[in-house]
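Task 17 of the worksheet. Students: predict the tertiary structure of the chain below and write it out as structure tokens. Keep your answer in the requested format; marks are given for formatting as well as content.
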Amino acid sequence: MTASPISAPRPPKTQTIRRRLARRLLAPAALVAAAGCVATRNDIRLLQNDLRVMRAEAAIADTARRRDLEQLERVLGTLQDSMRLVTARMAKSQGDVREDLYGLQQQLVQIQELTGQSQRRLQELRAEMEQRSRELQAASTSAPDSAGAPAGAAGAAGATPPQPGPNQLFQLALDQLRRGSTGAARTGMQELLRLYPTSDVAAEAQFYIGESYAAEGKTAQADSAYAAVAQRYPESSRAPTALYKYALSLEKGGKKREARQALDDVVRKYPRSDEAMLARDRLRTLR
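Model answer:
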């Protein structure tokens, strides 16, 4: 009689149950892990596609920007060329204007010199006429009377020689000033104003009184004399000149507010004078 083979011992029933439970639990976890791997690969592919699209778009945008920059550079280059051309034209125009102004100033100086010469010659002629008038007056007083006796003897005792006229006094005083005798010139001008305060050379005499003080460096007296020209003889041709010189003296003395007011008066009262143009330029620089 043969013996039957010995069968392996069976595991307990509890272990079998545990294994079945483990297989059931691990199966879903494996499925989830596999699904996760698949999802991660898809995401990576999508991300890579997005990156490629972004790079392509960035390249297109860079190309467009580069094209815009090149166009802007061309426009700027054109504008710079235009600006250089305009600047060159303006410089040429300014040079032409300066040359024209210089020419006008030279002509103005020549006209003023000619005018001054004419005025001096006219003044000399007036002085000569007054001198001849004095000589004729003196000759008439010394002529023989109706009795035949020379009237010069009687005239010498009682008659006084006629006084020099305003133009003659002015010419004599002006000659003294030109020779540098400022005191004698000022005395002659003051005598003219005392004897002939309403003569046509009174404003000139007052002006040259200021010039005599200025030549001696007496600023306060010169300012007073210049101001008197504008106050007493506002319609004379010397008024704007005297007022402008008065303004310059105030500025030099540090009285800028008063100087500015005097310059404004020159422009306002004598707008067509040469001094008004100088006063406008001075006002631009006076601070």
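Marker's comment: The chain is about 80% helix and 0% strand. Residues 146-158 have pLDDT under 50 and may be disordered.
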